[in-house]
Design brief:
Distance between the termini: 28 Å
Shape: globular
Organism: Acorus gramineus
InterPro entries: F-box_BR-signaling, KIB1-4_b-propeller
Strand order of the largest sheet: 1-8-7-9-10-11
Protein name: KIB1-4 beta-propeller domain-containing protein
Number of strands: 11
Largest sheet: 6 strands, mixed
Strand content: 35-45%
Order of helices and strands: EEEEEEEEEEE
Pfam family, one: Beta-prop_KIB1-4
Number of domains: 1
Length: about 130
């Protein structure tokens, strides 16, 4: 039976740096997740781990076998060992801009998979990132 670890989440938006910042506790310690946006579309993610011995943040491109699932009000870490359909060392994210949902036909939905290893994106929905909300 797969297990799900719900992470503590601290979210805020800073319009000056166009980023969302999340603080999470994962299996290997404290993670700082930085989501870069231009202005609404996700450009990239950066992950930092807290090195408690040096008391500083260290940039990393690895979640080991893990995956982060990031949504409007949820942040979860899952092991890819338990979910063979998903790829480890990835961030699965959904569109968190609910202010423009009525205009969804006029813009692209910002939901995708970000692969940390090579900083590339993959589609959750196939070839078309513009999908109807259900």
């Amino acid at each position: 039976m797969p297990t799900v670890d719900v992470l503590d989440r601290n979210w805020f938006y800073d319009p000056d740096i166009r980023a969302q910042m999340n603080l999470a506790v994962g299996p290997s310690g404290l993670l700082f997740i930085l989501r870069h946006l231009i202005p609404h579309q996700t450009e990239m993610f950066e992950i930092f781990r807290l090195d408690e011995t040096k008391t500083k943040w260290v940039h990393t491109k690895s979640l080991d076998d893990g995956m982060l699932f990031l949504g409007l009000n949820t942040l979860m870490w899952l092991s890819s060992d338990n979910f063979k359909e998903c790829k480890g060392n990835s961030i699965y994210f959904t569109d968190d801009d609910v202010t423009d949902l009525k205009y969804l036909d006029d813009r692209v939905e910002d939901s995708s998979i970000f692969y940390l290893e090579d900083a590339s994106f993959g589609s959750i929905y196939g070839n078309d990132r513009k999908v109807a909300m259900i």
